[in-house]
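Q: What would this chain look like folded?
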Amino acid sequence: MNEKLVPARLGLRDILRVGGAGLRTRPTRVVLSALGIAIGIAAMIAVVGISTSGRAELDRQLDRLGTDLLTVSPGDDLFGGDAVLPEEATEMIARIGPVTAVSAIGTVDAKVYRSDLIPEQASGGIRTSAADLDLLETIGATMDEGRWLNAATARYPVVVLGATTARLLGIEQAGADIQVRIGGEWFTVGGILNPIALAPELDTSALIGKEIAAQLLGFDGHATTVYTRSDESSVTDVQAVLAATANPEAPNEVQVSRPSDALAASAAADQAFTGLLVGLGAVALLVGGVGVANTMVISVIERRAEIGLRRALGATRGHIRAQFLTESSLLALVGGAAGVVIGVAATTGYALLQTWPTFVPWWASAGGLAATVLVGIVAGLYPAARAARLSPTEALAAP
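A: My prediction, written as structure tokens:
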């Protein structure tokens, strides 16, 4: 009685064992091929992780500083000149019901110098501003050195420097013996501010009291920037009426902004740049896939005798195809896993240097591994098909 021959079947464990054995015989080539995959995945994971960690830091920063800060400043008049806010603008804004805090600064026409030997043309981009005493509480700023202005020091030549201003002037500490020259007058440095995320214009300012500004430097009393805090639920409503309240006669000459929106816009720009970098990482991954395909094609050529022997011993075309597809997939998976580890490590290191929270989305790691498997399968299709087409006699006869 004739019995029908049934080809042997390879289980998943057997396929993995055979595929792994093929990689172990060529460790150097495997490492070099996997490196291309690892670089692409590491680049993608690091870019996504650093970008996400940066946005997490932004969210944490906004939670700490609040999104309820609005600023009012003069715009242009009908003739294209610089408009001016009324002197009573701050008081009128304070009457808005949901407004919880109001403070202002006014630009003073006086340049700031570390020494009286510096030419007047070299201003260094530092501006002098007369500030309200409650400015720090309103904008949520903190001191790095010294103290903020109070009712006493605001009447004397005492200045508080913004973080950038102090750096430009080469001043690292406050004290009675530390002085700067403002508009031809010597001012004692009473304090230095920390960087202010929601009011970066203050980082390049020298802040003095309004009384001494009017007495020594001719300050006219007009505010150039008014900072307001409102109930979180009423910020939009307050923003809508600020211009008309600050200058009822010419609301079109008033500019109203929300600093937290600028931070969010900056994050959106960073996200677009992140997309570009992820695209570059994908190109690197594609190059790595080409390397895997090249490795597998060379492997087929070098192992024709092995393929012929396995075919002669009963291995089917499907067995050979599965073997080489498994090898290419494992090769890509090894590179992908290494890339994920490198990418997470790079993200963690960068976040620690920036004092950011470390956050790598799970989908980035999972997607990276899935992409490597896909690359491995695609890269192994042609070599696997080529190996499966070899007949036993042809393969065994190869030199």
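The longest strand covers residues 99-108.
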